[in-house]
Amino acid sequence: MTEFDGLPVLRSPVLIAAFTGWNDAADSASQVISHLTEQWQARHVATIDPDPYYDFQMARPTVKVTAEGVQRIDWPFSGFSAASPADADRDVVLLTGAEPSMHWRGFCEEIAEICHSLEIEQVILLGAIMADVGYAKPLPVSGTSNDPDLASRLRMEDVDYEGPAGIITLLHSTFQHIEIPVTSCWVHVPHYASTSPCPKATLSLLHRIEELLDLPVPAGGLVEQTAEWENEVTRLVEADSDIADYINSLEDADDSPGEPSGDDIARDFERYLRRRGPQADEE
């Protein structure tokens, strides 16, 4: 069940969505939603009931406890907020939350129903994957779209992939099935520098959103944070000649990927499972 906080009247709204979990290396995609929520002063619109979709032993609620007892319980959830960017002729709906543990088809259907209620006209899905890329050049953003003209304008390459999928891919399929224009964008995060946060990856996704919407997106402090991140990675790289040689070879390579390759996604999935530890083996 979805809880609405009033149903707003929106102008040609576009949905931008990202989820924490496997789809979100270094929290790069979910940080885009956090950044836009703050910059555009988005207001809460709706919350999806978490009970049908989350295993609370895996995605545990957090609590605040004082001498007077339990003061607050925060449950994992997925929520919608709406914003009216300055000088824009359309509104933006932001969706974020944790990747659900189960009932993915029902989850996607519920999101599609909410989008129908909000009269969403376009969808942008964001993800981040660890990959073999350099860090000094702009981080590549690849993607796919069911809008051929848009894909051509953004120079998206054809995709030929078979392998594990995250909730972003299933949502893309859902919107494609109901014929809503949908674009998925994946930023490639250097796997050797994938500790959260990675402001450079977040900034790369913001630039792609600007291209998709033809709308200026305020960077806030991300430019300065990116410079600090690059300086820190440089210090770490300079301390190890083998790593420096490896990264130089990546920087010299031709960085023109389409969708993340099957090998990239398989390796990223293995890394994600290792980060989760023994609990992943219990699912």
UniProtKB/TrEMBL annotation:
Protein name as annotated: Putative ATP-grasp superfamily ATP-dependent carboligase
Entry annotated with the keyword Cell inner membrane: no
UniProt keyword terms in alphabetical order: Ligase
Origin: domain of life: Bacteria
UniProt key word Ligase: yes
GO molecular function annotations of the record: ligase activity
